[in-house]
Amino acid sequence: MTRILLKITYNGKEFDGWQYQQNRRTVQGEIERALKSVHREFIRIHPASRTDKHVHALEQYAHFDTTLDIDPEKWSFILNNKLSGDIRIIESKEIDPEYHVRYHSKGKVYRYKMYFGEPSPFKYGLETHVKDELNIDRMREAAEYFIGTHDFTSFSSAKTVIENKVRHIYKLDIIETTNGLEIVIMGSGFLYNMVRIIVSYLLEVGKGNRNPESTKENIENKDRTQNPKVAPAGGLYLERIFLTEEEQGDYLKENT
Amino acid sequence: MTRILLKITYNGKEFDGWQYQQNRRTVQGEIERALKSVHREFIRIHPASRTDKHVHALEQYAHFDTTLDIDPEKWSFILNNKLSGDIRIIESKEIDPEYHVRYHSKGKVYRYKMYFGEPSPFKYGLETHVKDELNIDRMREAAEYFIGTHDFTSFSSAKTVIENKVRHIYKLDIIETTNGLEIVIMGSGFLYNMVRIIVSYLLEVGKGNRNPESTKENIENKDRTQNPKVAPAGGLYLERIFLTEEEQGDYLKENT
């Protein structure tokens, strides 16, 4: 048996998320269908992260086990031939059968894209349109409070069943683009909806509806109800997954 | 009765083209649904051009007649509130009830977008991926033969029922972009599939499968079967429609 690791990118617009659901188009469902057509039997795939409906991935990892004698590097080519153009396997390789990409990976980077001006049909589902003027200095001031180790109960879905809500945020950058803004957040891990609630909170700060200084108290309150709704899924990109501490360290060095 | 002209843009990816079809998502169908919900009765909309399945429009025009006493400029706002993010009414205004945007407009510009390198899920349906290396000088040489007044039987769908296949091409430019190519074609009018057949022909020339010099004979043969299949719809954008000769003249002056 060989464990194969896939590096995957997908446009989430026409997917009901990663996780398999009957009669829905999901990323897992599409890749498992491709794997089944090669193996002639069902093969389960395990992702590093289960992205939500309409969320994109610039880099996602997933692994599966195979008994077929196929060159590990060839899997990307074989599967791409069976997948639609909105998913692409960037790379495939063999990994240690003891390595589980969800439990052993070290952290992630998400990017949230938004734009100003007239709404564009060509950005629909790919970037979030913001009509308000934003005060970026205020947003950056608020962003500082998220960095470090915190209990993120206030910034995760009330439906979260995971007990330990402490996560470490390494970086939270707000980047001005030609006609918009990108929020890049790097953390040890993220709770359900956490990035999209932090983004919508920062937007409220930028619009002047929240004070940057109250962010500390907001986190300490551990109360989800005080914070705004999640930001739309279409602006969110899973950008990096660190398979090892070394990869994470290199990213931090390159991005400081 | 007031005739309202709409300037429209849409991302064609999730549309089965402009023209209404039962149980299909079409641009006409979506706009007529929005108009019906305002008028409480069916209102027909007439486009300048019926774009095919998955073809995009940066600028499309269409008009409808209304007896409602609504400020003509307000229609864009009213309809945008009822339309999905992949269609957008850029502008609305009153026009002469004798003006028919399909019969009275003077010409059009189409743009075809393609890119090289690794296929990207985020360009899927928006630009056509080309894996071959292209000789752009050869393509430009072939492009010259299309300019002027010709019978374009060789470059239109065999299904075309229109008898007069003579059209005038004003410009045919091949533009290199950061990681791809755009073909911009301006004409008095276009036959069914004409732009997409010209594009696929130029790609064959670029790949070295056709000689630029044989383009003249190819046009003169008036034989559709000698030419390649249509290029994929997702790379094609209806970019401009000239409502008057003056608009067309201005465009030519600005783009020479």
UniProtKB/TrEMBL annotation, chains A, B:
GO molecular function: RNA binding; tRNA pseudouridine(38-40) synthase activity
Enzyme class, spelled out: isomerase
UniProt keyword terms in alphabetical order: Isomerase, tRNA processing
Its EC number(s): 5.4.99.12
Region (Disordered): 210-231
Residue stretches making up the Pseudouridine synthase I TruA alpha/beta domain: 9-103, 142-240
GO BP annotations, alphabetical order: tRNA pseudouridine synthesis
Binding site for substrate: 110
Signal sequence, start to end: none
Catalytic activity: uridine(38/39/40) in tRNA = pseudouridine(38/39/40) in tRNA
Compositionally biased tracts (Basic and acidic residues): 213-226
Keyword tRNA processing: yes
Annotated catalytic residues: 52 (nucleophile)
Entries under NCBIfam families matching the protein: hisT_truA
Subunit structure and binding partners: Homodimer.
Biological role stated in the UniProt entry: Formation of pseudouridine at positions 38, 39 and 40 in the anticodon stem and loop of transfer RNAs.
HAMAP family in UniProt: TruA
Xref: PANTHER family: PSEUDOURIDYLATE SYNTHASE, TRNA PSEUDOURIDINE SYNTHASE-LIKE 1
Similarity annotation: Belongs to the tRNA pseudouridine synthase TruA family.
Protein name: tRNA pseudouridine synthase A
